[in-house]
Structures are given as C-alpha cells and as structure tokens.
C-alpha cells in the first residue's frame, strides 16, 4: 500500500539559514531519517518543494488553458515537501512519518493513502 | 423477530464480524456479510428449528457470503489471484500478538488512534456489540442518518487507509491501551446505565466488556490500569441482580438487597484490585475500583467507609478534575461529615456551566436539602432534575421522592 506524506513547516516555523550549524544539523537529521527509510525498503520517492511563490496553477476556461501565478489556494500551512512510501499498513506509514524531523520541529506531516492502481506505475 | 433469535444475534454478532473480518480483511464487507447471514437465518429459523450449532452456522454462512462478494469483485478487477489467495485457508498474515482473539483484534481496530475519538465507541458498539445504528444514535443523542454517516466514514477510512486488523505488539501497547480501556469502560457503562433499552441487551454489553477487560489483562499483565478496569467492572457488576426491580425500577445502593450481590465476582474483583495496587502505579481505574470495593464489600449500607471513599474521590479528582468526580466526592463528604458539608461541595459546582444541565447533580442536591429539612428548596431541586429529562427509571425514582415532600 502506498502512502503520500505531505510536509508542512507549520505556520510560524523558523527555518535555519544555510551555512549555520542549525542548518547542517537539520540536513543531517533528514539524511539519517531518509536513509533509515531507504534501508527498510519503504521509501519510493521524496522531494522538497520550492516555495509557493514559484508555483503556477493550470486551469481551463472553456477550450482555453488559463495559467495563474501562485498555488491553488493560499494555505496557512504551505506544503513544502513529500515522501512517497510503500508500507504494509497505516501503522507502518505513521511510524515512518513520525521519524521525519519536521515533526519534532513544529511542522506536521499529513499521511494519505493512494488508491490502488491509480494510474500507471 | 422473536426475542430468542434476537438474543442469539446479539450474542453472535461481534464474534461473527470479527471472524469474517479476519478472513476478508475488510470490516465493512464483513458487516454486510454477517447482516446477510442473519437475514438468511431469520428466514430459515422462523420456518423450522434452528441448527444445533447456530453460531457455527452463522459464521460459516457469513464467511461464504463475504468470500462470494470478494470473488465477484476480484473477477471485476481481474484480480483472480487475490480471490484465490483469500479462498485458500491461509488468509491474510495472522497477527503475532500473545492473545489471539478475533474480537480483541477488532476492538483495537475500532479504537485506532487515527480514528476520531468520538466515533471509536460508536464503532465498537456497532461492530463488536451488535447494537443497531438507531440504538447508538439514541445513546449519543444524534439523528440516525448522522450516526450512520459517521460510522460509514470511519469504516471507509479503516479500509482505504489500511488501518491494520491486529493486536498491537508489546512495545506499542503503552500507547494503544488507554483508548481501548476507555472504550471497554464505555461499553460497560452503556450496559450498566439505567433504564435504556432492554435488560438482556444491557446484560450482554456488561458481559462483553468484562470479557474484553479480562483479555486485556492477559495481553498486558503488567498494566495496573488494565487490572484496575477489570476490578472496577467486576465489583460494579457484582451488584447487577440487586440494581433493578423486576419491572425495571432502579434500586438505590443503600436499599439494595445485599444477599443478591454476587459474592464470587466481588472476591475476584478484590483479588484483581490487589494485584493492580501491588504494582504501585495508581490510576483512575484503580481508584474507581477501590471506591467500588468500599461499597461492594460493606456488609450493610451503614458499614460503608465513607471517609475512605471521600479520600479516594479526592485523589481521583487529581487525576481527572471533572465536575462529575467532585459531585461524587460531595456525596461521600455528606455521608461522612453530614449533609451540610456535602452541600457546600455541591454548591461550588452548580456555578460550573458544564454541569448545570446534569440531572444527577440536582438530584444529589435535592437529596441533601431534603435531609437538612429544607423541603421547599429540595422540591425545587427535584423539579430541576426532572426538567432535565433523566432516563425513565430515574425519573420514576425522583418523582416518588418529590411526591413524598408534597
């Protein structure tokens, strides 16, 4: 069963500046967590997203494609990254989600199951 | 439906759903299949005699219906392999927990932390205890469609998010036990609550809660709160036969015929409580069990150690500072130090908006005022309690007391 973990930093999280020891520590923490997931064979894919200001939203108006600068909706909790996991059940997915360092740093992870056979794999 | 059949259904529902869920891995599908089997049984058994083993019959038919359904779906999804696997005796991987009991697995699924706390007890009552959606809706004071929707949503989440159907492993238990203990406690409370529904159904709920509490103590023998809960249920249930009259009226504790109390249950409860207390990690269930023990082990109502009970409620209030606990403490204080002292505790509570609509608070106040000879105030308090729509059995009791004052 596949689970998509959506990451948010939380509304008022302070992100460490690159080059600072805090930044290095955060990177290390993520690397350790990611390696553990990869070693356990549950990690399919992960990624960090550029900020919402880089987003473009695609819609259609009649036949015409309409582009909007920005995300779907201005959310208080911006999605900043994702993990795609393959787990036996929700308990396993939740256990791994809890190891993502953002959880202990004021952020949150939303765990959503993917539908079986949803499109090409 | 004949009441005899209904009783069989009540008793077998949870077991059948649990067994079929283990075979199919889908709680919703299991419930549908059991419902079908029960409908089929109703048709057959009203026409002729029921089979010798109604339980085995129901489970076999329900299991077959569920597998038929899976086979149909599998064919539709061209997933024949899946059906073949399910049709084989192997089934999904068996949980590795120490205590293998289908209903225990089911209760852990229903109490999964990924489900909204409010729906867990409703789901347990529906799937494990076989209460109808209408009955559960009435208990929670919501409309039947609203309750049906909440149950459907929860079952869908269990299926779609693959909430596992298993007893958690030992290292997970400390996190998972409190929610399950809570639900088992609530199942018992529903069974024990006066005057709602039929007596047989109520008794079944109490029995099922005790059975589950027993299994939980075997699953987690070092958890003093699991032992505390079992002790509490046993010590409370020991009074079952004396709690109501034949026509369903509630008999107050002080007026109960103690000869009807179940000596064996009491002894077991006291023993289990002793084992819990020996672990030196007190908690709310142990404290409530200790209070129940004070009542159930007193040879007469006059022998009740109210000073000890008041102390226990005070400790309990530190764990759970709810107005309900304080109200109970007030009653114990009234018994040990006189009605005026108890009333002082209660009057501090009536200012609390959360309990102003709670009929028992006013009923307790009325009783203390009556004993202080403040008849008019007592009558007012009885009327306030009655206006808050108490359950029928309590309504009768309160009306009788009010009439005595007139």
UniProtKB/TrEMBL annotation, chain A:
* Domain YCII-related residues, every copy: 1-115
Source superkingdom: Bacteria
Coiled-coil region(s): none
Family label: Belongs to the YciI family.
Q: What is this protein called?
A: YCII-related domain-containing protein
Source species, please? Answer: Streptomyces spiralis
From TrEMBL, chain B:
Tell me one GO molecular function of this protein: sigma factor activity
Under SUPFAM superfamilies, the record lists: Sigma2 domain of RNA polymerase sigma factors (SSF88946), Sigma3 and sigma4 domains of RNA polymerase sigma factors (SSF88659), TPR-like (SSF48452)
Q: Which GO terms describe its biological process?
A: DNA-templated transcription initiation
Q: Which InterPro entries match?
A: DUF6596, RNA_pol_sigma-70_dom, RNA_pol_sigma70_r2, RNA_pol_sigma70_r4_t2, RNA_pol_sigma_r2, RNA_pol_sigma_r3/r4-like, TPR-like_helical_dom_sf, WH-like_DNA-bd_sf
Q: Which residues form the RNA polymerase sigma factor 70 region 4 type domain?
A: 108-158
Q: Where is the signal peptide?
A: none
Transcription regulation is among the record's keywords: yes
Gene3D superfamilies recorded for this chain?
1.10.1740.10, Tetratricopeptide repeat domain, Winged helix-like DNA-binding domain superfamily/Winged helix DNA-binding domain
- Which of UniProt's keywords are assigned here? Sigma factor, Transcription, Transcription regulation
**Disordered: region residues:** 74-94
Q: Does the keyword Transcription apply?
A: yes
> What positions does the domain RNA polymerase sigma-70 region occupy?
14-76
Residue ranges occupied by any DUF6596 domain in the UniProt entry: 176-276
Composition skew (Basic and acidic residues), residue ranges:
74-83
Family label: Belongs to the sigma-70 factor family. ECF subfamily.
User: PANTHER family under this entry?
Assistant: BLL6612 PROTEIN (PTHR47756:SF2), BLL6612 PROTEIN-RELATED (PTHR47756)
Protein name listed in UniProt: RNA polymerase subunit sigma-24
Query: What lineage, starting at the top, does this entry show?
Result: Bacteria, Bacillati, Actinomycetota, Actinomycetes, Kitasatosporales
């Amino acid at each position: 069963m596949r689970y998509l973990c959506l990451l948010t930093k939380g509304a008022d999280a302070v992100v460490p500046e690159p080059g600072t020891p805090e930044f290095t520590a955060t990177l290390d923490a993520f690397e350790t967590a990611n390696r553990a997931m990869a070693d356990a064979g549950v990690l399919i894919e992960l990624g960090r997203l550029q900020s919402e200001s880089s987003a473009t939203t695609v819609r259609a108006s009649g036949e015409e494609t309409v582009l909007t600068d920005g995300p779907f909706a201005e959310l208080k909790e911006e999605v900043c990254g994702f993990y795609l996991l393959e787990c036996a059940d929700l308990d396993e997915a939740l256990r791994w989600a809890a190891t993502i360092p953002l959880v202990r740093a004021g952020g949150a992870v939303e765990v959503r199951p993917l539908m079986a056979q949803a499109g090409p794999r | 439906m004949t009441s005899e059949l209904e009783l069989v259904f009540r008793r077998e529902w949870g077991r059948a759903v649990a067994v079929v869920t283990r075979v199919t891995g889908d709680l919703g599908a299991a419930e549908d299949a059991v419902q079908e089997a029960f409908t089929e049984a109703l048709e057959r058994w009203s026409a002729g005699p029921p089979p010798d083993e109604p339980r085995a019959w129901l489970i076999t038919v329900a299991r077959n219906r569920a597998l038929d359904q899976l086979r149909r779906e599998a064919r539709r999804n061209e997933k024949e392999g899946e059906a073949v696997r399910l049709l084989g005796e192997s089934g999904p991987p068996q949980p590795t927990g120490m205590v293998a009991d289908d209903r225990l697995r089911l209760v852990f699924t229903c109490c999964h932390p990924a489900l909204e706390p409010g729906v867990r007890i409703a789901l347990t009552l529906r799937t494990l205890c076989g209460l109808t959606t209408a009955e559960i809706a009435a208990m929670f004071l919501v409309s039947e469609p609203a309750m049906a929707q909440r149950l459907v949503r929860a079952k869908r989440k269990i299926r779609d998010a693959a909430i596992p159907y298993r007893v958690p492993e030992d290292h997970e238990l400390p996190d998972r036990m409190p929610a399950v203990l809570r639900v088992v406690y609530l199942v018992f409370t529903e069974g024990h609550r006066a005057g709602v529904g039929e007596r047989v159904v109520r008794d079944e709920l109490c029995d099922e809660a005790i059975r589950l509490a027993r299994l939980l103590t075997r699953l987690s023998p070092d958890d003093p709160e699991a032992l505390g809960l079992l002790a509490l249920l046993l010590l409370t249930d020991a009074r079952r036969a004396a709690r109501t009259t034949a026509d369903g009226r509630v008999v107050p504790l002080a007026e109960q015929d103690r000869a009807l109390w179940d000596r064996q249950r009491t002894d077991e409860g006291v023993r289990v409580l002793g084992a819990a207390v020996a672990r030196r990690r007190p908690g709310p269930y142990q404290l409530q069990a200790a209070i129940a023990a004070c009542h159930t082990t007193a040879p007469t109502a006059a022998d009740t150690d109210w000073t000890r009970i008041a102390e226990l409620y005070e400790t309990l209030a530190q764990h759970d500072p709810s107005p309900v606990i304080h109200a109970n403490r007030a009653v114990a204080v009234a018994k040990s130090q006189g009605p005026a002292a108890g009333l002082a505790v209660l009057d501090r509570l009536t200012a609390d908006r959360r309990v102003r609509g709670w009929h028992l608070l006013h009923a307790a106040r009325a009783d203390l005022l009556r004993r202080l000879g403040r008849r008019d105030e007592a009558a007012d308090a009885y009327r306030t309690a009655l206006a808050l729509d108490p359950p029928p059995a309590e309504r009768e009791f309160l009306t009788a007391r009010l009439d005595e004052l007139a």
